[in-house]
Amino acid sequence: MSDAIKAQKQLVIDEIKEKFSKAKSAVIVDYLGITVEEANTMRKKLREANVDYSIYKNTMVKRAIEGSDFAPLVDDLKGPSAFAFSYDDPTSSARVINESIKEFKKMAFKAGIVEGVYYDHEGMTEIAAIPSREVLIAKFMGSIQSPVSKFVRTLQAISDAKTE
Q1: What is the average pLDDT value for the chain, to the nearest integer?
Q2: pTM for the complete prediction?
Q3: Enclosing domain of residue 153
Q4: Degrees (nearest 5) of the Cα angle 115, 133, 23?
């Protein structure tokens, strides 16, 4: 192998290392069967969720994640693999890809690492079901607001009863 080819491969490995090092989560997907149009639709949704979706050779990824927190993914790097890196919301990549899996009836999770924890196919499916941070906060605030507003109405009713 020539030095030029080695240098090109090293550039790709460095790029992959950088993406993994910045990511809060990385998901491996078997993307076989989706059309170009479906892939473009999914990529648009992933970009909107600030998720980086890339396709790399498995051998390059294996070299890039050697010795890192993402090393447990090595055993899942077989066959066609696409990688979704989430830099903000750790569950967004799994959630958006899961929507595409349901919509297109194609593709499948292979595995992933979310905030340092390895998940297999089933685990990634469960992670994908977790609502976004904003939705969880809204639900929490709603659950807090309900008892408080009920308490305020009760106090108002007592106050109204005393003034009559």
Answers
A1: 88
A2: 0.78
A3: 132-164
A4: 30
